[in-house]
Here is the input.
Amino acid sequence: MGRVYAILGDIHANIEALETVLADARAQGATHYVCVGDVVGYNAAPAECIRVVRDELQCPVVRGNHDHYVSYFDTNLADFHPAAAQVVEWTRSQLTNDDMSWLHNLPLQKPVMGFMLVHSTLDMPDHWGYVFDNQQAESNFNYQYTQICFHGHTHVPIIYANTPGGVVHYEACDFTYEFGQKLFINVGSVGQPRDGDPRASYVLFDMSARQVRFRRLEYDVAAAQARIRDAGLPERCAERLEQGR
Ligand SMILES: [Fe+2]
Here is the structure.
């Protein structure tokens, strides 16, 4: 049997969403797991999510900007929105030294069995640039040497393709690809979707069939919100989960 990868991204300390996604991935026949970063941030279960990704899945992971802010003490929180700084500091208070050094040492990009993982873009992975249009995707393709690269960061699932006529994009949809065209695929967010659909997002990638499938799943949003409120984190973090924004 070929490898079927579950590609998870922007989990953002949402253990309810993560557990739901993992149950679905197992039911769908996933054999391997990878993560395109931002295991922590925004939501209230950072230690739990690290435990699942690092200890249970033991899968390849790249560093997201929130993983970075939390684990690099030269991060200047004075430049942050006060609510964002509060979440970074609270997250630090929840983690062990081992958790912190695990986040700190995550690579910015990682090759996995012939495809790439990055949180933001391959051209400047430590600048955390957002890819919202074809032009922004073009800079990435200049540094993409594999046919497939998965990324996250915007929390919006989308497919960019580098065609002979230039970069085009497609709405997230299931497809089988041919050899040739490079694809830069945003898998959406497990723990804080922002495309107006509050359901958890991830991708299944069947390498031998060259098949990509986008999955959306309802999960216990109310439980994730209760956890945020109990922790005293900003109310906006709870509200946006039900809005998908
Ligand atoms: Fe994120």
Summary: The mean pLDDT is 97. DSSP finds eight helices and eleven strands in the chain. The longest helix spans residues 15-27.
